[in-house]
């Protein structure tokens, strides 16, 4: 006879949806994501998050599309949560995470500027910093 032992591990993550750009309030950009795996999602709030995965890249000259692996170890997104001192104990206990609404990360503004080609340093249209 023989014995078989099997195992399975899940790495909970947030998968960015193909059409993921969402505009939030105050000029922020959010990413539409879907939850993968059985994560402890409340531990994802207020943490700096990087990005990794597979992306499709179109070459400017040939128009050819190819697959590339991406890994950004810097903080580029964050899932915000209301500061604990602004909530009552009852509100903290009652907060049930809605994965569709509450886990949409916000793109860091410096990353947004780099992606959009903006160079005004975060000021208004006349270049004044607020």
What features would you describe in this structure?
There is one protein chain. The chain has 130 residues and is mostly beta strands. A three-stranded antiparallel sheet has the order 3-4-5. The chain has a two-stranded antiparallel ribbon with strand order 1-2. The N and C termini lie far apart (74 Å). Helix content is 14%, strand content 35%. The protein is flat and about 60 Å long. 5% of the residues are buried.
Helix content: 10-25%
- Main structural class: mainly beta
Strand order in the sheet with the most strands: 3-4-5
Instruction: Let me know the largest β-sheet.
Output: 3 strands, antiparallel
Question: What percent strand?
Answer: 35-45%
The rounded Rg comes to 19 Å
What string gives the helices and strands in order? EEEEHHEH
Q: In total, how many beta strands?
A: 5
Mean pLDDT: 81
Query: First CA to last CA: what distance?
Result: 74 Å
Task: Give the arrangement of secondary structure elements.
Layout: E1 13-23, E2 29-36, E3 48-58, E4 65-78, H1 89-94, H2 99-102, E5 106-107, H3 109-116
Antiparallel strand pairs: 1-2, 3-4, 4-5
């Amino acid at each position: 006879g023989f014995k078989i032992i099997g195992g399975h591990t899940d790495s909970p993550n947030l998968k960015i949806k193909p059409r993921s750009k969402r505009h939030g309030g105050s000029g922020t950009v959010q990413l539409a994501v879907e939850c993968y795996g059985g994560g402890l999602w409340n531990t994802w709030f207020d943490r700096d998050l990087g990005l990794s995965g597979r992306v499709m890249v179109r070459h400017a000259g040939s128009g050819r599309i190819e697959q590339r692996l991406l890994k950004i170890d810097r903080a580029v997104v964050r899932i915000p949560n209301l500061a604990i001192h602004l909530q009552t104990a009852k509100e903290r206990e009652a907060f049930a995470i809605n994965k569709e609404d509450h886990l949409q990360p916000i793109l860091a503004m410096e990353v947004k500027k780099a992606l959009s080609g903006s160079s005004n340093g975060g000021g208004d249209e006349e270049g004044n910093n607020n």
